[in-house]
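Customer escalation, tier 2.

The customer says the design service returned an amino acid string that "doesn't look like it belongs to this structure." They asked us to rerun it and document both sides in this ticket. The original structure tokens are below, unchanged.
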């Protein structure tokens, strides 16, 4: 196991539990809601906020996948890394996370970078 993932497991931030189909559906619903919010924010040209919602759409879809498998991950970087164990390309999610951080915490000019389309594609892969 990757050293970082092993550390998260020791810290109780990655847990193996029973599959939780209800939680899986709840997080999938949350992912779709975040994607819908991202679209509305794009229409209003609120690109930093759009970026955040598009990222969270992908992140919640990831957590949905894990809930359906009986995995709990309480760390964003760990969740992104775990995707590779399922042969799921995590690059788009990692890039979305970095973009969200830059636009949320720094003064980088926010713009529409096509992240909503990336989020739509990502959700299709995980559904």
């Amino acid at each position: 196991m990757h050293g970082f993932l092993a550390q998260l497991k020791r810290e109780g931030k990655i847990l193996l539990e029973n599959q939780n189909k209800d939680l899986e559906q709840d997080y999938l619903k949350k992912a779709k809601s975040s994607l819908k919010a991202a679209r509305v924010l794009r229409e209003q040209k609120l690109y930093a906020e759009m970026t955040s919602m598009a990222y969270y759409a992908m992140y919640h879809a990831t957590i949905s996948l894990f809930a359906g498998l009986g995995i709990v991950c309480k760390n964003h970087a760990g969740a992104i890394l775990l995707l590779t164990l399922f042969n799921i390309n995590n690059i788009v999610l990692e890039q979305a996370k970095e973009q969200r951080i830059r636009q949320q915490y720094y003064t980088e000019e926010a713009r529409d970078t096509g992240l909503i389309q990336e989020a739509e594609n990502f959700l299709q892969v995980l559904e």
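Tier 2 assessment: The sequence is consistent with the input. DSSP finds six helices and two strands in the chain. The chain has one domain: 3-126. Sent an explanation to the customer and offered a walkthrough call.
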